[in-house]
Design a protein that fits this description.
Chain A: Keywords: Cell membrane, Membrane, Transmembrane, Transmembrane helix, Transport. The complex is a heterodimer of chains A (259) and B (244). Chain A contains ten helices and no strands. With 259 residues, chain A is mainly α. Chain B has one domain: P-loop containing nucleotide triphosphate hydrolases (Rossmann fold, 3-Layer(aba) Sandwich), CATH 3.40.50.300. In chain B, helix 4 crosses helix 5 and helix 5 packs parallel to helix 6. Classes of the chains: A mainly alpha (259), B alpha/beta (244).
Chain lengths: 259, 244
């Protein structure tokens, strides 16, 4: 019950706050439309919004898939070939130091205005967090697990697949969560720089035509996608590590009060 | 198979912890090494297991059958080292799971049999986090037995347990490891005297091994055994004498 009531309460509270700001400041509707207007626009333009949302969602999901696969692969290569680490690590850090926003026009030039450049943006923005998280997880295997595996006569591959990889799953889960929360940024920035479909395009277009209510409706849909994606990934990441128990809900004080 | 470790030395930050150390492990006997922390007991044990990579330790290992010792030692640490993502049974079968071949039905049955032997027959399919500390160490003992190696090296295996659980596990280990060569490292003189055929003390700077103490009677010895308690007192005094 609380699982449904709480998000509903938060949504209602935020909407109320939004409406209050509109009332208090008396902002005209082309600056800040009230929630009612935005909901109207959302329902009016639902087919249009859904069409663009579908494109953006596909970009996010494909970017997420490629980024995670690429990151996982890089982390495995880094752990497998020690020499590679010295060469690849600086490249990785540089790739992260250049803002993806600055790369967007170049990607547009190379990959065109279609979905490919947006997928590349999303992939690029999550590549580093996933690689770093996986690599950290893989190299922080408790040494005694590895020693035990050695006394058991395990080959190097067996140690990697049966000891290092499972031990790295919690770290991989954290990488996935970060990836899920930043992948939408990559896709939308890509759409801003140049595109003819997607929620980012719709927002820019609506803004230029002073359809601020439509812009907010698109923003709402985007937020909904990002939040659902995060919770979905969070749920999947928990499924990956059934042996780990959360300590978040344990009482902080000694009295052990149950909530 | 008798095992002999010759001329072992350990250095820690340019400081010699021990050198020229010789250790005999007669076949089928339970040898214990007592000593304080930092005297190099664990490094000595890990040298025999072939896993002493964080210490500057060396020595020559000779087996009476002339073959190398590597791959013929089972290691049991203070921490049970059960992998949290595998069920208790799969942890026991870890040796077979890590090899190239698939786990056979006979191995599975043997795993179940060993779990029943250590009193965990009903816990085969649960995750290690659902076991108590004593049960976890029992599972680790079953994993060690499954390996079926000629030499078993135990590094303070029962030190994390409460007194009652420790006594029970000592009895169980003595019964199940009866005819194997065992090397056990421990802080606890009573534990060493209850279980061992030979007790050695490693102490001094640089550290040296004492002459073996040979407790009498069949293991596991009772904690009410008079001569045993007498020896425990003497050993404690010997160990504590260093500090004073």
């Amino acid at each position: 019950m609380a699982a449904i009531a709480r998000p509903l309460c938060i949504a209602l509270g935020l909407t109320l706050l939004w409406q209050c700001i509109v009332w208090v400041t008396g902002a005209p509707k082309f600056i800040l439309p009230g929630p009612g207007l935005v909901i109207d626009a959302l329902l009016d333009q639902l087919p249009l919004l859904l069409r663009h949302a579908g494109v953006t969602l596909a970009e996010i999901l494909l970017g997420l898939t490629f980024g995670v696969i690429l990151g996982l692969f890089s982390a495995l290569s880094l752990i497998t070939w020690g020499g590679l680490r010295r060469w690849l690590m600086p490249v990785l850090v540089i790739s992260q130091a250049i803002p993806v926003f600055a790369l967007a026009p170049v990607l547009m030039l190379w990959l065109g205005y279609g979905m490919a450049s947006k997928i590349a943006m999303a992939t690029l923005i999550i590549y580093f967090p996933v690689t770093a998280a996986c690599f950290d997880g893989l190299r922080r295997t408790p040494t005694n697990y590895l020693k035990l595996a050695r006394t058991l006569g395990a080959s190097w591959q067996a140690q990697l697949i049966q000891i290092r990889l499972p031990a790295a799953l919690p770290a991989f889960g954290s990488g996935l969560r970060v990836a899920a929360s930043v992948a939408p940024i990559g896709a939308v920035v890509g759409e801003w720089v140049g595109s003819s479909t997607g929620l980012g395009y719709l927002m820019l277009n609506a803004n230029a035509r002073m359809q601020v209510d439509l812009m907010f409706a698109a923003l709402l849909v985007l937020a909904l996608i990002a939040v659902s994606l995060y919770f979905l990934i969070d749920w999947l990441a928990r499924l990956l590590v059934p042996w780990q128990s959360d300590t978040l809900n344990t009482p902080l004080s000694g009295s052990g009060r149950n909530r | 198979m008798d095992i002999r470790l010759e001329n072992a030395s350990l250095h820690w930050q340019q400081h010699c912890v021990f050198s020229g150390l010789n250790l005999e492990l007669p076949a089928g006997q339970w040898t214990s090494i007592l000593g304080q922390s930092g005297v190099g007991k664990s490094s000595l044990l890990q040298l025999l297991c072939g896993i002493a990579d964080d210490a500057d330790v060396s020595g020559t290992i000779l087996c009476s059958d002339g073959r190398p010792l590597s791959g013929r030692v089972a290691w049991m640490a203070q921490d049970d080292l059960l992998l949290p993502w595998l069920s208790v049974l799969d942890n026991v079968l870890l040796c077979a799971r890590l090899s190239r071949d698939r786990v056979s039905t006979e191995q599975r049955e043997y795993g179940h049999y060993l779990l029943a032997q250590v009193g965990l027959g009903a816990k085969a399919d649960v995750l290690p986090k659902q076991l108590s500390g004593g049960q976890r160490q029992r599972a680790a003992l079953a994993r060690t037995l499954f390996q079926d190696r000629p030499l078993v090296c135990m590094d303070e295996p029962f030190s994390a347990l409460d007194a009652i659980n420790r006594l029970r596990l000592q009895d169980l280990a003595a019964q199940l490891l009866a005819d194997r060569s065992v090397l056990m490292i421990t802080h606890d003189p009573l534990e060493a005297l209850r279980l061992s055929d030979r007790v050695l003390v490693l102490q001094g700077s640089p550290a040296r091994l004492s002459r073996p103490i040979l407790p009498l009677g069949a293991t596991p010895r009772s904690v009410r055994d008079g001569p045993l308690l007498q020896q425990q007192g003497e050993l404690l005094a010997l160990l504590a004498g260093e500090v004073a």
